[in-house]
Amino acid sequence: MRIQRALARAFWSVSRWRLRKAQLPDDGVGILIGAPHTSNWDFILMLAIAWAHGLKVRYLGKHSLFTPPFGWLMRALGGIPVDRRNPQGLVDDLIGRVRAGELFYLVITPEGTRSKGEYWKSGFYRVAYETGLPVTLGFVDRTTMTAGLGETLRLTGDVAADMDRVRAFYADKAGFDPARRTEPRLRDESSMPTSD
Fold first, then answer.
1. What angle do CA 60, 186, 34 make, to 5 degrees?
2. What is the pTM of this model?
3. Is the confidence at residue 195, as pLDDT, over 50?
4. Quick check: helix, strand or coil at residue 148?
């Protein structure tokens, strides 16, 4: 972790971006939302944010990123391969890891793509709600050239009310490429989502 923190310090000292730190819960486990997710640079910025905070992170990536020659690196950086043909299995696996006592912050980009979309994926909500994990809102905002962590939420099960809080936080966050930003909205906010 010392090497990661040193790399993060070096990155932030030379970057045009400014880091916004936040106080996180002391239990060492939770979900970090990475949004707006509009560029491949988001990955580097989120790693630099997490390492600056000294966090052990895991993240989700499409399974094709975990093949040779760089698959080992993606795993070493905390990657969990995602087979998009079976998203239900992934959510169940993540819930199992947390319930088994594995401690890490799971970085999730609920947009699921760098392109502009219509909805966020609901898997982050289901994992957080079913495990009781706190959700910390991470962000990238090109308009202010800032990136970092914002408030931490405990989801209530009132999906619409919880998502209203999420929308309020991200309302002024543009992402790395503002044209690709997706509004934080789940497909069905009238009931607890189980999968997309």
1. 35
2. 0.84
3. no
4. strand
